[in-house]
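User: Could you walk me through two proteins back to back? I'd like the raw sequence and the structure tokens for each, with a short line separating them so I can tell where one ends and the next begins.

Assistant: Of course. Protein one, sequence then structure:
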Amino acid sequence: MDKASLASALGSPAVFGQSQFAFMRGNAFEARVKADGGAELLRLVHDKLDRSAEPPAGAQVPALSATGPEGRAARTSLALREATEAPGTWTLLDHPMLALDVAGSPAFLEPDAVVVHPDGSWTVVEIKSFPMLDGSADPAKVGAAARQAAVYVLALEQVAARLSPSPRVRHRILLVCPKDFSNLPTASAVDVRKQRAVTDRQLARLTRIEDIADALPEGVCFSPDLPADELTAAVEAVPATYAPECLSACELAFHCRARSREAGAVTSLGRPVRAELGGLSTVEDVLAAARGEAGDPADPAVAALRRAAALRAEALATAGGGAL
């Protein structure tokens, strides 16, 4: 479903996302990297990943346009096959479309680029607008780029598995960024084997979409065109546990946050707080336990709350009843 449209229909539109300035700057940098048939990009791939190959004097850049994501994914698979069967040449796939099975449903992915080496192996290229200063970039941003590229590597492996013989998908991707404070491209090879393994395990553990659908009430529908009360009831038929981390990753986070606050759920304060409170799942339960009105005194969480409440009362008494 389109969760952004769903959130807007529920009256809690998502407001996060990349700024227009950053979006334009990123597009301008990517266009520079891929200019002249990707000559600079291929030079970086050769320099950082495949110096034993012949320097790329030129490259094939196949057209990948087609109708719909399914058509583009099929066209990408064909282009990869043709490039792999023509050894000795470099091939650059600009914004290919890949399909990855996620819980039984295809998810369509669009890497910035995929390069086919003269030996027939494949490399994922990620182009980012954050800078590399003195050859190093922000570790958090590099980690996020590596996790993103690992998903593309998994999708490429599924394409490669359908070919005979199966080409090698390289686990070292090329991360291209602006050099220092300029707009000149520089690059670094990033090993994504760890991120690929973690993502693969996570995908294997996902509940199948069919199983989720079977657990829903009969006739439930998430169309944004439904009346607000019906749409709200449909969304709430799916259990959700809001945490502040959701705000940076989910379009429905603001809706779930409002519902979590209405219910007094302690998860709205963060997962670490929820973990410390054990079986106390609402703010009302926590306050009652702290006041000694509820809860098992042998419960470590309840004992800690009562100790904290006693210390607070003592501090307030010492301060003459003033606020801390």
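----
Protein two, same layout:
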Amino acid sequence: MINKVQNNLLSQMQALESMAQGQTLKLEQKTDETTSFSSMMQQAINQVNDTQMHASQLTKAFEMGDSNLDISEVMIAVQKSSVSFQALTEVRNKLLTAYQDVMNMPV
């Protein structure tokens, strides 16, 4: 999947480079589900959700007295969950800012 994304990005960059040089090159638009932005964003959201659910389960199990869990393991899972959620929030904020900038551009 990463190779497809990299190849798609490379072809887009080459097309932009040729356009900047005054040449015209057809930009290949792939509508493959695995490389679309919405599917990548959905995967990121699902990963953050999974991380949060795992941290919640570990926290609940530790609170219930599971002797197989260390406090450090639980705290690391909670921190991973927190960091991943903060990163996703920042990505969302940047996307909204970019959208607002585009919408405010004069036509």
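The chain has a mean pLDDT of 82.

Let me know if you want the two compared in more detail.
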